[in-house]
């Protein structure tokens, strides 16, 4: 397990802290070279140092994913540095707690630009690169069925250790949220953006299936990260509560009676990026201790 991502290159957005940092550490521990992408140079650098101190390989990269040109530049720079991209974890996001009737246009735009627009264009830019990396016989979706059928009918036709054409040629994991499962009166743009990510995941899974690129989403619940600290503080201010009360109340609704850790999410992401998940695509998986069930 410690080496299942050897010789693989992963981009993790929002990897400077919280869940993204946990994912970056996990993928690096399993052998991936990890691009620690974050808008904050200090946190990106700190995560990279932690990875390298543990013996892993990391590249800190400062990027605002709401800027499409910056995202495209990041992809080009990563390819220049490593020659390829095998995994993308679209984790970067922002949240705002505010009553729906009080939302301003700039409140809506800020959340949607990062969470929805940024996630999609990161996915698109990396997927375009993944397609460019494909063997020649897989670059034409029309030819794929014949190639795949031919290989599966002759299982001994590949060299030992060489990936078969039925294997995945790229893994993309998008971070949605349990907030994307239904509306939220106090975080309307956030819930809308996370619902959109589930839809984007399904659309991308369909579009990229001919190229054997898997696209899935994870939906976290309550995770004590800087984002959830902000949610708790905002709710305390709105309702005159003490800090910590909102998070504690949410945790009491979790059947497993605890919050998630970044490692809980990182384990699921690592699975979805592995060969064990080659036949899984277009799925949105709740990682929430049973808060949402479907």
Question: What does this protein look like?
Answer:
The protein is an alpha/beta fold. It has one domain (9-152, 166-223, 261-287): Rossmann fold (3-Layer(aba) Sandwich), CATH 3.40.50. It has 9 helices and 7 strands; from the N terminus they run βαβαβαβααβαβαααβ. Helix 6 (188-208) links the parallel strand 5 (171-175) and strand 6 (214-220). Helix 1 crosses helix 9, helix 3 (68-82) runs parallel beside helix 4 (105-132) and helix 4 (105-132) runs parallel beside helix 6 (188-208). The longest helix is centred in the middle third of the chain and has 28 residues, at 105-132. The chain is globular. The relative contact order is 0.14. The model is unreliable at 156-162 (pLDDT under 50).
What's the mean pLDDT score?
92
Helical amount: 40-55%
Assign an overall shape.
globular
Tell me about the largest β-sheet. Answer: 7 strands, parallel
What is the multimeric organization of the chains shown? single chain
End-to-end distance:
30 Å
**Coarse structural class:** alpha/beta
Q: What's the helix-strand series?
A: EHEHEHEHHEHEHHHE
CATH superfamily membership: NAD(P)-binding Rossmann-like Domain
Strand order of the largest sheet: 3-2-1-4-5-6-7
CATH class (first level) name: Alpha Beta
Give me the Rg, rounded.
20 Å
């Amino acid at each position: 397990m410690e080496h299942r991502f050897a010789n693989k290159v992963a981009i993790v957005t929002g990897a400077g802290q919280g869940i993204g940092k946990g994912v970056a550490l996990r993928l690096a521990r399993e052998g991936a070279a990890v691009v620690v992408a974050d808008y904050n140079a200090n946190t990106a650098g700190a995560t990279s140092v932690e990875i390298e101190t543990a013996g892993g390989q990391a590249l800190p990269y400062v990027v605002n994913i709401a800027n499409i040109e910056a995202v495209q530049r990041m992809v080009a720079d990563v390819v220049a540095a490593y020659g390829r991209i095998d995994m993308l974890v679209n984790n970067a996001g922002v949240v705002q707690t505010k009553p729906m009737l009080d939302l301003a246009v700039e409140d809506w735009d800020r959340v949607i630009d990062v969470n929805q627009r940024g996630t999609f264009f990161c996915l698109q830019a990396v997927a375009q690169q993944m397609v460019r990396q494909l063997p020649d016989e897989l670059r034409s979706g029309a030819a794929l069925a014949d190639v795949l059928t031919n290989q599966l009918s002759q299982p001994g036709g590949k060299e030992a250790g060489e990936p078969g054409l039925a294997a995945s040629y790229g893994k993309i994991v998008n971070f949605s949220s349990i907030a994307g499962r239904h509306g939220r009166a106090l975080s309307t743009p956030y819930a809308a953006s996370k619902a959109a990510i589930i839809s984007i995941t399904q659309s991308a899974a369909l579009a990229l299936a001919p190229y054997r690129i898997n696209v899935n989403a994870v939906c976290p619940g309550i995770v004590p990260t800087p984002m959830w600290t902000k949610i708790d503080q905002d709710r305390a201010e709105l309702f005159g509560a003490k800090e910590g009360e909102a998070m504690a109340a949410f945790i009491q609704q979790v059947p497993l009676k605890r919050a998630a850790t970044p490692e809980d999410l990182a384990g699921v992401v690592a699975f979805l990026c592995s060969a064990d998940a080659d036949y899984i695509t277009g799925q949105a998986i709740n990682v929430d201790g049973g808060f949402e069930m479907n």
